[in-house]
Amino acid sequence: MKNNSFKPGKVWLDTNGNRIQAHGGSVIHIEGIYYWYGENKEKTDGKNGIWHWGVRCYSSTDLYNWKDEGIIIPPELEDENSSLHPTACMDRPHIIYNKKTKKYVCWLKIMNSFNEQTETILIADHILGPYIKVKEGLKPLGMNAGDFDLAVAPDGKAYYYFERVHSETICADLTDDYTDVTGYYSTHFPRIHPPYVREATAHFYRNGKHYLLTSGTTGYLPNPSEIAISDTWHGPYTVQGNPHVGDESNTSFYSQISSVFKVEGKKDLYIACADRWLPNEMHRSYDVYKEMFEKIFQGREDEFDFSKMGDYPVENTSIADYVWLPIRFEGEKVFIDWHDEWTLDDYE
Asked: Most C-beta atoms within 10 A of its C-beta, which of 6, 141, 198, 310?
């Protein structure tokens, strides 16, 4: 059945009738076609030890109906030490195009352990691959680098926004080939510890202003987002606050931001793309697990009554859903309103 609208939080099927598996991903527009890629979680039931099954990509011309283009970065099954082994915690692929080298460059975040996060870099001649691994185990600036976004300026210079794990947000310049950092960087949003440290950074540019939309740090459990604005790539950024209007749950409508993109041919339509990682866990109270994260990272976990959390959530992300919502602007202020259903025709 053909889709003719967005239905945030509802099961979204591809043109073959299967769940779309492009989590923590992004949308890129190439020669009249949108490509949506992300983590393939089809085999991740939260119990079998499989974290991912590669990076999957879909194509569309209308943003409602998506054709499965297959796994563009496959899992590496034979090498248990590979960052692409299904048990490796590979997250949030981001792909940008380098006009100078004529290569698509993909960065992947790898959570090797609680205390170490590194990047794997791949390149390809086409958005659909094949991709060749060029770097593995990269620690940008010698830092543990968490959730991130990549952005390219009109002059071809590229930037890498990432969470310095459990600390602050970094904006780093990329090298000319986009496969490493130059060493120049700026720091933003220093926070004492989770759940307040910012992650899931999504950059977008509008009317001469740079925006960073971020989540807090509570794993797959959702939390309040923040939007910040700047005149330049490196800031300083001014925090506007939580953009989700009327979100009494403090969970960003039970979702976590993954990326923002502007719709081609529309005057001022930007879509905030988010994942509803655990649709079966929406009964949980943010205030409860916020307190849990506070106590854990303050070294006071013995003061938290873990019975308030109930059973530990099963992280079955194979059934994760998507929450795509239009961004509303009032001048330079950003707002995200809930819509049960909406269409592109609602916007100029």
From this structure: 198
Tally of helices (H runs) and strands (E runs) in the chain: 1, 20
What domain range is 261 assigned to? 189-348
SS3 at position 239: strand
Instruction: Please indicate, yes or no, if residue 243 is contained in any of the structural domains.
Output: yes
State how far the Cα of 173 lies from the Cα of 158, in Å rounded to an integer.
6
E strands, 231-332, are 238-241, 256-262, 270-276, 321-330
150-185 tens-digit pLDDT: 999 999 999 999 999 999 999 999 999 999 999 999
Q: Answer whether residue 166 is part of any domain.
A: no
Distance CA 76, CA 83 (A): 8
Beta-carbon contacts of 302 under 8 Å, excluding residues fewer than 6 positions away, are none
Residues 304-318 have pLDDT tens digits of 999 999 998 999 999
Instruction: For residue 185, give the H/E element and its range.
Output: strand 181-188
Domain membership flag for residue 120: no
Q: How far apart are CA 81 and CA 5, in angstroms?
A: 43
For the record, the structure tokens of 198 come out as: 């910012």
CATH number for the domain harbouring residue 346? 2.115.10.20
Q: Please give the tally of structural domains in the chain.
A: 1
DSSP 8-state class, residue 292: H
**Does 282 fall in a domain?**
yes
Q: Strand 89-98 and strand 199-206: pairing? A: unpaired
Long-range Cβ contacts of 114-123 (<8 Å, 24+ apart): 115/144, 116/144, 117/144, 117/145, 117/146, 117/165, 118/83, 118/144, 118/145, 119/145, 120/83, 120/84, 120/90, 121/179, 121/180, 122/73, 123/179
DSSP state of 342: B
What's the pTM? 0.97
Q: Return the closest-CA partner of residue 126 out of 82, 80, 95.
A: 95
